[in-house]
Each structure stands twice: as structure tokens, then as C-alpha cells.
Amino acid sequence: MRLILPLLAILGASLVHAIELTFELPDNANQCFYEELQAGIDSVFEFQVVTGGQYDVDAVLEDPHGKVLYKQPRKQYDTFNFKTEQHGTYKVCFSNEFSTFSHKVIYMDWQYEGNVVSGGIKPSPKPIAMTALDSSAQTIADRLRLVDDYQTHHRLREATGRKRAEDLNERILWWSAGQTAVVVIIGIGQVLLLRSFFAEKRNPAY
Amino acid sequence: MNSLLRLVLALAAIEAVTGLYFHIAETERKCFIEEIPDETMVIGNYKVQLYDPNTKGYGDYPNIGMHVEVKDPEEKVVLSKLYTSEGRFTFTSHTPGEHLICLYSNSSSWFSGAQLRVHLDIQVGEHAQDYEQVAQKDKLNELQLRIRQLLDQVDQITKEQNYQRYREERFRQTSESTNSRVLYWSITQVAVLILTGAWQMKHLKGFFEAKKLV
């Protein structure tokens, strides 16, 4: 549920950091991202395959001790909420090793709460008194952030469809031109072959 | 005065260069795609560290430089600069679409095979705004600052909606082009087939007549 982090921000608990990246994963490749997270914070990790092959990728999320928190082979998109238990470097890896020739474009979004300063200031959820106007403004800001999230999802889906359509458009051109050329070549070839059957032989059979 | 908002917004403005990181090889080029509407600002912060086999860790080497190259949707280079091992780059999009941000180091391969650790943070649109600075420059109180931030957010949403219309139009044009291509090429292929058949018959008739077989 994407409402978790914005709601916590309303309580004045902490700041929500988000990093979203779209990158290309070549075939037979593996790409890992690392993030240092404090203990006891909520984090949301989301990915979606935008273009490529069967639109699937292996994704793995590990905690600082290598324990696998999330592992799904060949998934098209997913969202994973988790609460960190230890402070340390969390690792997420995408693997396209099962694919021999299709490279994939993958969108990744990692949100987590916490202060920017690294090295151990734990966010303490002190509910600080805010006026009604302040908290309304905060709510509006969080709802707008949700709108932004939904727009991103919409854009990714539309990009997938659009790229497929552009690919199809180009393929029709080349295949049709190729087919026409093949028809003409076969037509001429048939005639030449037939002519060769009736060629004058030195020693006629009869 | 309630300084919570100031604190929150100040923290938002601090460069989060200790955030996400990944590894690349020395001569490898890593690219990220940002699909953004036009007139949108993008700010990237990065920090590069080099693997030191002696300490088996990653350390700061100020001599490493990073090329940052940004291409717009028409493959035209918008930004191409060499920065030091820690830097920040900014650009504003003038055409909507997919911009490509590429990072690669400028080191020659006498450290061949070394791994680089790149810390990266890319913020787009209203996330790239430094509200502390805006508050100081325009002398806004907290409520005014908060409203300014909401206005920026709504602006960005409007831009994205416009971009959505533009993308839908492109998709529709592609589909219509596919439709007319299928029609045109099918008719052409049938015509070519008929013409080839007619030419074959005419040619063979002439051939057999010449051979006095008919």
C-alpha cells in the first residue's frame, strides 16, 4: 500500500526519500543497486519492465546479512513493502541472465524514510503539534505525490504499448518489402529454370 | 515559529550523495533514461569511488573524472561535461520525451578492470527545487512556502498530463501509419503477384513459339 510512507510523513515522523531510475539491462546481464538504510524504517521497492522480450526480469532484494527478503523470478512488475530490521546496506539485483538476445528496459523506484545524514541518526517519530492549516497542506502534498505515482504507472504502461506499436510499424515495412522482392525473384527464377529444361542439347535423347 | 517545516525542507535540499550506489567497470558507460515533459528541470548528484585492492574497500580518489552526457529525445547532445569525482549536473528539457543521461569515467586503462562505485541521485521537476533558497530569496513564511511547493507540484502534474496527450497522439499516428502501411503493401503485393504471373505467361508463350513447340 503506497499510503504508508506519506501517512508517516504526516505525523512529522521523518522525511521520505525516493530514487527512481530507468535503465537498460542487456541480455545475460545482472545489475545491482545498493542503499544504506537505518533499522526500523519502512521502505517500498517497486519495479516494472517497460520494453523487451517477454517483459520479465528476475528481481532479488537482500538485507545486509545476505538474507533474501524478496525473490521473484521472471516477474513483469511488482511492489514490495518492507520494514528494515537492521541498519546496513540493502541490495537489490535485477537479472536478465535467462534471456539470450532481448535486452530489457527496467524502471525502478525505491522509497524509504529517514534523515539524509548517514551514520546512525535514527529517525524518532515525535508527533509535533501542527495547526489544522499545516496538516491540511501536508495532506494535500502527500495526495499530490500519490497522483504523481499514478501518473508514472500510467506513463510506463503507455510507453510499453507505444514502443510495441512502433516496433510493429517498422517491421511491417521491412517484411512487406522483403516479401515483394522474394515474389519477384521466384517469378523470374521459375521462368529461367523452365527455359533451362528446354535448352538445346548437344546429343538429343531422341 | 514552528521550524519543523523548515527542517524538513532543508533536509530535502541536502545533496543525498550517500544514497543509492552501484558498481561499474572503469571504462563502462552507464545510461539512465528519463522520460519527462518539456520545461522540466533535472538535477543529478553523484560521487565516484575507486576500489582499492590493498584495503579491499572503496576510497575517494579526487583524480577520477566523470563525463556526464545528456541527450534529448532527438539524439541531440544537451549537456556534455567532464566533472570531478564528486559533482552535480543540471539540465532543463526543452522537448518532451526520453532523455538519456550517460555517465562514464575518463580514466585511461592503466587501472584496467578496476571497479568504480558510483553514488547517484537524480531528482526531477519539483523534487529538484531547493525550497530553503526559495524561502530566503522571496522571503516567504512557512505557509507561503508550503503553498508554493503545492503549486509546483500541481504545475508538474499539469505538465505531465499535457505530455500524456502528446504521447497519445504519437501512438495514434503510429497506429494509423501501421494501418495504411498494411493496406498499401497488401495491394502492392497482390499487384506484383499478378504482374509477375502475367509476365511469366507472356514470356513463356513467346519462348515456346520461338522453339516451335506450340
UniProtKB/TrEMBL annotation, chain A:
Location of the protein in the cell: Endomembrane system; Membrane
Bilayer topology: Single-pass membrane protein; Single-pass type I membrane protein
Origin: domain of life: Eukaryota
A cellular component term, taken from the record's GO annotations: endomembrane system
Residues of the signal peptide: 1-18
Pfam short name (any one): EMP24_GP25L
Primary localisation category: membrane
Cross-referenced SUPFAM superfamilies: Supernatant protein factor (SPF), C-terminal domain
PROSITE patterns on file: GOLD (PS50866)
Family affiliation: Belongs to the EMP24/GP25L family.
Protein's name in the database: GOLD domain-containing protein
Organism per entry: Panagrellus redivivus (Microworm)
From TrEMBL, chain B:
GO CC terms: membrane
Compartments, record wording: Membrane
Membrane topology note: Single-pass type I membrane protein
Keyword Membrane: yes
Coiled coil: 133-160
Chain ranges passing through the membrane: 182-201
One Pfam family per UniProt: EMP24_GP25L
Signal peptide, first to last residue: 1-19
Cross-referenced InterPro entries: Emp24-like (IPR015720), GOLD_dom (IPR009038)
Domain (GOLD): residue spans on this chain: 29-124
Domain of life according to the entry: Eukaryota
Record has Transcription regulation as a keyword: no
Keywords: Coiled coil, Membrane, Signal, Transmembrane, Transmembrane helix
The family this protein is said to belong to: Belongs to the EMP24/GP25L family.
Protein name: GOLD domain-containing protein
